[in-house]
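Collaborator request log, item 7. Partner lab (contact: R.S.) asked for a structural prediction of Secreted protein to inform their binding assays.
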Amino acid sequence: MLQFLLPVALLLSSVSSAPTSDTQGTANTAMSPAAVPNLCKPPNPDGANTYIYYDMNSHCQQTGNCKEACVSFIQSTACARDFDAVDTTYVQLATYDQIKKDGQWETSRRGPWLASFSLFTTAFPNRQAGNTFDTALTRYMNAGYPLPLNIYFNEIPVGSNQVFGMEARRDNCQ
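Returned to partner:
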């Protein structure tokens, strides 16, 4: 677990307001749903399609942990406050626990965050893909976006065309 959290701690310690390049997974809004890559479309967006997504394909290719990946943050259910260290740690731990599990109905809870697999995902073939999720989470948080209640992570492993997905959902905004 420490190996997973250490890179996150290093990323969090170097908060920068400078925009990242497209190859590093910049934030995109779903202004035109037709232009959103399929991998980035969350299964349950709100009616207005108000979400932020990070296309993490370049990150996948650089790390070799996956072929394609995308992380989507549902904005319409955003809490009226920013991420704090407690929320960040809980969502990281819940997703870290979940990515190690096998079984469609397995879940992982840490504090108010519940992580579960998307339909037809029973496990992630490469558990190191969680680093891609963490990178997108850190960029979202550092950009100053409010705390969402739903985060979707989808990835396609190297050598495959199958999509593997996971959702992290916060119980409430307390």
